[in-house]
UniProtKB/TrEMBL annotation:
Residues 1-12 have a biased composition (Polar residues). One of its GO terms (cellular component) is vacuolar proton-transporting V-type ATPase, V1 domain. It comes from the Eukaryota. V-ATPase is a heteromultimeric enzyme made up of two complexes: the ATP-hydrolytic V1 complex and the proton translocation V0 complex. Gene3D superfamilies: 1.20.5.2950. The gene is Atp6v1g3. Keywords: Hydrogen ion transport, Ion transport, Transport. This is V-type proton ATPase subunit G. Subunit of the V1 complex of vacuolar(H+)-ATPase (V-ATPase), a multisubunit enzyme composed of a peripheral complex (V1) that hydrolyzes ATP and a membrane integral complex (V0) that translocates protons. V-ATPase is responsible for acidifying and maintaining the pH of intracellular compartments and in some cell types, is targeted to the plasma membrane, where it is responsible for acidifying the extracellular environment. Residues 14-26 have a biased composition (Basic and acidic residues). One of its GO terms (molecular function) is ATP hydrolysis activity.
Length: 118
């Protein structure tokens, strides 16, 4: 009987050791998963920062050329306004004379379709 109880005790102890090893393995696995998650998060953050930096560089290059384009357009607009203003001042007097002559110099004529009443 004692050998049986001793055998049972050994089995129970072996079972307990196996259970402890399983729990320890689960803890290690949990730690590894947590560490892997943290590493993945750090890697994602690093990649995101790198891509954002590249985007900002490209954006600066594009916006910089747009800034030059904007200055060029502003210069062209100013030149066009200057040309229109000078053209206005050159032609204003003659146009005013034509307009006033058309309005003030009325020559009364009978319309060709007019029929006098009989």
């Amino acid at each position: 009987m004692t050998s049986q109880s001793q055998g049972i005790q050994q089995l129970l102890q072996a079972e307990k050791r196996a259970k402890d090893k399983l729990e320890e393995a689960k803890k290690r696995k949990g730690k590894r998963l947590k560490q892997a998650k943290e590493e993945a998060t750090a890697e994602i953050d690093h990649y995101r920062l790198q891509r954002e930096k590249e985007f900002r560089n490209k954006e600066t290059n594009v916006m910089g050329s747009q800034g030059n384009l904007s200055a060029k357009i502003e210069e062209q607009t100013t030149e066009a306004i200057r040309n229109l203003t000078s053209s206005y001042h050159r032609n204003m007097e003659s146009m005013m004379k034509k307009l006033l002559s058309t309005i003030c110099d009325i020559s009364p004529e009978i319309h060709p379709n007019f029929r006098p009443a009989v």
